[in-house]
Amino acid sequence: MKIVFFGTDDNSLVVLKGLLLGGHEIKMVVTSQDYLKARSKKKYASPVNEYCVENKVPSSVGLSSKNLEGVDVIVVASYGKIISESLFKAVPYGALNIHPSLLPSYRGPSPVRTALLNQDKETGVSIISLNSKMDSGPIIKQEKVVIKDGDSLESLTHKLFSRGLENLLDILSNPQVIKSARAQEEARATYTNKFLKEDGIIDWKQPGKSIISKIKAMGKSPGAHTTVGGKKFIIYQAVLGEKATGLEPGRTGISIFKGTKTPFIQSKDHQVLIMSLKPENKKEITGTDLINGYPELFNKD
Questions:
Q1: Given the DSSP bridges, would you call strands 252-257 and 285-286 parallel, antiparallel or unpaired?
Q2: Which residue, 188, 215, 249, sits at the end of a domain?
Q3: Strand runs (DSSP E) across 133-194, as ranges?
Q4: Backbone Cα Rg of the chain
Q5: Which residues 6+ apart lie within 8 Å of 119 measured at CB?
Q6: Do 69 and 212 belong together in one domain?
Q7: What is the mean pLDDT of each run of 10 residues along the chain (301 residues)?
Q8: Based on the domain organization, do 238 and 184 belong to the same domain?
Q9: Which of 188, 223, 255 is the last residue of a domain?
Q10: Backbone angles phi, psi at 59, to 5 degrees
């Protein structure tokens, strides 16, 4: 099919590459403008825009309905902006959006973070036709996905968009199914909010499972962050350690995990074993690096 694609990040890129490999013709890619990174004067392209430049795929930061002549369908994957209704009404099969939740649950900007934060056992991916309201269009296809203990924000999001791609390709091979999409049950709709940096502050007085869930949900950006011994850290990966209630929440220590010395921070009820983290203004390090590089954090009576 002839497609106009809207997307920006690495998850979008998974879908774009899959469409090209599936033999579909990408007439145009609409993506975000180049951006400045913090403390940098250099402009960076989005992963999708960078791929398009390198592979000579036509791309733009905007589109009007007059550019849609001959286009069969619009595909949207992790684009992050509202798309004008005039655009998807201008093509035969409208606009199809990959949303990483089982709609109508978790509409909005952060469905994967919310599922992890809520300690859900399963989530899923929905392919919907866009309409005038956010994430409320009719559902063409859905697939449930189990959330595993080892899933992170990044790995689970990648998994959901990969499954979304497979479902999208099935739909595009038989586009008549788009016309038989079912309406969402509005009474069951729930909504998510954008996560801010302050949402990542770790309260060590909380139960260990809640802290692990927050670390997973916050991902590498904006990250779950804490201050230990006057030093700021973003914790990227942690696992639940031994149950222990005799230590003060926030106290650090060293435990043995799978035969290796591993740092922990005490929560309300468990040791939280720190596997990887990022000191402020430095690169990511392992828990072992933390023990070796910051011994003063563990030299306590």
A1: unpaired
A2: 188
A3: 139-146
A4: 22
A5: 209, 213
A6: no
A7: 96 97 96 64 79 94 87 96 91 97 97 98 98 95 97 97 98 96 97 96 97 97 95 97 87 92 96 96 96 88 51
A8: no
A9: 188
A10: -145, 160
